Amino acid sequence: MEGPRDAPPKGGGGGPKLILCNPWRNAPFFKRRGGDPHTGATRPPRPYDPVRRHLAIEGLVSKREGSAELRRYYRFRADRWYGGIATADASGCGLLCKFCWTSDRALYRPAEMGDLYAPGDVASRLARIADCRGFRQIRVSGGEPTIGRAHLLRLLDEIDSLKGYAFILETNGILIGCDASYAEDLSKYKCLHARVSLKGCDEEDFFALTGADPEGFRLQLRALGNLLDAGVECHPAVMASFSPPSKLEALADRLRGIDRGLANALEIEELILYDRVAARIKRYGLKPLTFHMPGRIPRELI
Ligand code: SF4
Questions:
Q1: Model pTM?
Q2: Quick check: is 8 in a domain?
Q3: Residue 4, domain member (yes or no)
C-alpha cells in the first residue's frame, strides 16, 4: 500500500526552491570532472518538487480570458500510435525526464512555444483531423495534459458533446496523485481512458530518470489508485528501458497491491532512440538496456 500524502503545496512560499530550468543538465560533470563547468558547484543540485514545478508551469502555459480557459499548444497533427490518433501537442510539463522526446525549447521554455487556444477550438481541430483520417481517438501529447485543469475539463466537455470519440489521457499522474478531487472531476467523462506513464519501476528509477524528488513515484502510483477509486478507466505504462527485469517484477507486485487488474494491464514502454533522445540521454550519461530505432519499431508497439 502507498502511504498517505499531504495536500499539494501552493505555488511560491516555503519548501524547496522552484527550479524551472533543468538542474541535471550537467550531471555527468559531477561524476567525470568533479564540478559543474558553468556554476563551479561540486555537488549535484537537490531534487526538485514535482508538484510545485507542475503548478509553476501551469502559470506559464494556461490563462483565463473572460470565461475562456486557455492553454498553450504548438502543434495539431495526425499520429500513428493506437492505430491512428488525432493529437494536439501542448507545451509544458512539470517533470524533466532525461529521455523525453520533446525539444529543449518545449521542455525548458514552454511559455515560448505555440499559442493559447480555447477548449472549443482545440476540440474542433482534433475532430477535424480525426474525421479526415477516419480516426476515433484523440489525445493531448507533447507536454503534460493535466496542467491547466480548468482547460482540460472544458476540453473534455467539448469532446464528450461531439460523441463518438475516445480521449486517451496520457499523463504522468503527478497532479492526479496529489489531489484525489482531480480524479473525481475526470470521472464524469465517458469518453476518457487514462494511461499513467510511470517513470521507471520505483523511487530510485524515478529520481534517476527525472531528477525529481523520489516521492513523485508514489504520487504516480497514487494517481492510479485515485483514478480507480473515482471509477475512471485507466492503466499503467512504465518506461522500462533503464530497469532490469527484477525491478519490473517488483513493480508488478506493488501494482497488484493497489489493484490486481493494474498489474495485468501494465504496458511496457521502451525507448525510441530518436536523434534528440539519443543526444539527451548521452548528455546525462544514461544507458538504456533496451531501445528501438525510429524506423524499426515493432508493429505491436504502434
Ligand atoms: S512526463 Fe512526458 S512530457 Fe513530461 S518530461 Fe517526462 S516524457 Fe517529457
A1: 0.87
A2: no
A3: no
Integer angstrom CA distances of residue 228 from 76, 165, 180, 193, 262: 30, 22, 10, 11, 10
Contact (CB, 8 A) for 94 and 54 = yes
Residue 147 near residue 57 (C-beta atoms within 8 A): yes
**Which of 72, 89, 95 has most ligand 1 atoms within 8 Å of CB, for mutation?**
95
CB of 232 within 8 A of CB of 185?
no
Number of domains in the chain: 1
Counting runs of H as helices and runs of E as strands, what totals does the chain give?
A: 12, 11
**Is residue 46 one of the residues assigned to a domain?**
yes
- Which CATH number does the domain housing residue 89 bear? 3.20.20.70
98-120: pLDDT as tens digits: 999 999 998 899 999 999 999 99
In a domain, 187, yes or no: yes
Q: What is the pLDDT of residues 145-182, one digit of tens each?
A: 999 999 999 999 999 999 899 999 999 999 999 999 99
57 lines ligand 1 (CB under 6 A): no
Q: How many CB atoms lie within 10 A of CB 146?
A: 26
